[in-house]
Write a structure and sequence with these properties.
CATH superfamily of the largest domain: Periplasmic binding protein-like II
Largest sheet: 6 strands, mixed
CATH architecture of the largest domain: 3-Layer(aba) Sandwich
Number of domains: 2
Number of strands: 12
Radius of gyration: 26 Å
Length: 443
């Protein structure tokens, strides 16, 4: 009888049609969909495009059988995910840096809605025998941009980085026999020389681009400790001789700025200001490494060739700085799959992911990344090889203060300085007042 039962069971298993055998009930077979874990990833579709995210999501799925990445990308990702978040439907992972107009990331910081990611640093990069911390370029998780509460914990993972500085037409300098200024005194002399030939020394896309410019300038003038004091609203910091020097220098630079800059310094027409450099109508503009891709199809002067430099030193032999901008990735505290989300973030620093990103021009802050770069990117990411120092960090997070915005006051006022509607002294006083209000709202 047992042999009959055994034979019957074997036949049943082959056809997978028998629910129970010899008195034992078999467990229902889960469908593939039921076995899958869904990881919701929301990513900003910036100038790098959306395709790289699709490729990285697919590569992560291959490394993690049973995981499905539900990817959402959009140029205005805040508009897509904010309504869902308010309804309780949170992404597991969000790639969205600070400094955006809608300030969703800043809001999440202020509301303490971010998961602690410190343990990700000690995780091994998936597929590699190295931890995330050891893979990262030193310094990237020691700033207010990743550790917004200054409590030794990382809440935002550093992503695509790019040195910011002054972009120019290297061919024009070669044709004119001009040297790139190493000090601000040399900068003013070049400005006078260019003016005599109908060329302005300076322009800027929008005032928002003065964040990286001002951060590097403050560090040049006062050093890293002074910069950090400014970023944490230290009492009286914006009335110091160092701060005064920074305001006055930008005030002088305003007089060398192309006349059409202010009119086009907005989200709709900023490329017209960038075009001034391509047309040899202005020598320098502050920008990031993405500008070459942004302007790749724009007309340009004959033999145009991108050049890139840090800010000139305050004095001969002084330190020169280039601010390093980087984006951030984070996990909402309300996310449902936090462990899987952290694994996904660790994977972002793998050689495999970095290579996918780099092909789109997005460079991860990992050691030896220059080995996979070529052309202009190799030039950009070698800026720190000649003694130029990196400036990193952002303003400390505070409780919301109605009607008060440091970016609007510090950077946004530049248009009024260039147009002459406000004086440098009025600007400095306004920034100092805002700093005082924000100091009282520090978390």
């Amino acid at each position: 009888m047992k042999k009959v039962v055994a034979l019957f069971c074997a036949l049943a298993l082959m056809t997978t049609s028998l629910a129970g055998c010899a008195g034992n009930e078999s467990k229902p077979t889960e469908s593939k969909n039921e076995e899958q874990k869904v990881l919701k990833v929301a990513a900003l579709e910036s100038a790098y495009g959306a395709d790289m995210w699709k490729q990285v999501a697919e590569a992560f799925e291959k490394k993690n059988p049973g995981v499905k990445v539900e990817l959402t990308t959009d140029k205005n990702i805040e508009d897509v995910i904010s309504p869902k978040m308010k309804a309780g439907d949170y992404p597991d992972v969000v790639h969205l840096g600070t400094g955006r107009k809608l300030a969703l990331t800043e809001t999440m910081i202020k509301e303490k809605g971010l998961e602690d990611l410190t343990d990700v640093l000690s995780m091994k990069v998936p597929g590699e025998d190295v931890t995330v911390k050891d893979k990262l370029v030193p310094g990237f998780t020691d700033t207010l941009a990743t550790n917004p509460y200054s409590d030794g914990k990382t809440y935002l993972a550093p992503m695509f980085y790019g040195p910011c500085g002054l972009f120019y037409n290297a061919s024009l300098f070669e044709q004119k026999g001009w040297e790139v200024p190493k000090t601000w005194d040399e900068m003013w002399k070049l400005g006078d020389k260019a003016k005599a030939e109908g060329i302005s020394l300076f322009t800027y896309p929008t005032t928002g681009y003065f964040d990286a410019f001002f951060y590097a300038l403050l560090t040049e003038i006062g050093g890293p400790d002074f910069f950090n004091s400014a970023m944490t609203y230290k009492e009286g910091i914006w009335k110091t001789p160092e701060a005064t020097k920074a305001f006055e220098l930008v005030g002088k630079l305003a007089k060398y700025t192309h006349s059409t800059t202010v009119a086009n310094a907005n989200d709709e027409n900023y490329k017209k200001n960038q075009q001034l450099v391509l047309d040899n109508k202005a020598l320098f503009m502050p920008n990031g490494t993405w500008v070459t891709g942004e302007m790749k199809d724009a007309p340009r002067a004959k033999d145009f060739k991108w050049g890139f430099t840090s800010l000139p030193a305050i004095k001969d032999g002084g330190d020169r700085y280039s601010y390093t901008f980087f984006e951030q990735m984070w996990v909402p505290t309300e996310a449902k799959n936090k462990d899987l989300a952290k694994n996904f973030i660790a994977y972002m620093y793998s050689d495999e992911a970095a290579e996918i990103f780099s092909k789109a021009g997005a460079i991860q802050p990992i050691k030896d990344v220059s080995s996979i770069l070529e052309g202009e990117n190799k030039m950009f990411y070698s800026i720190y090889n000649d003694g130029t120092k990196a400036s990193m960090g952002v303003f400390a997070a505070t409780e919301p203060v109605e009607g008060v915005s440091m970016p609007d006051t510090l950077f946004g006022t530049v248009n009024s300085i260039v147009s002459g509607d406000k004086t440098v002294e009025q600007w400095q006083n306004a920034v100092s007042e805002v700093s005082d209000k924000l100091r009282g709202a520090l978390k």
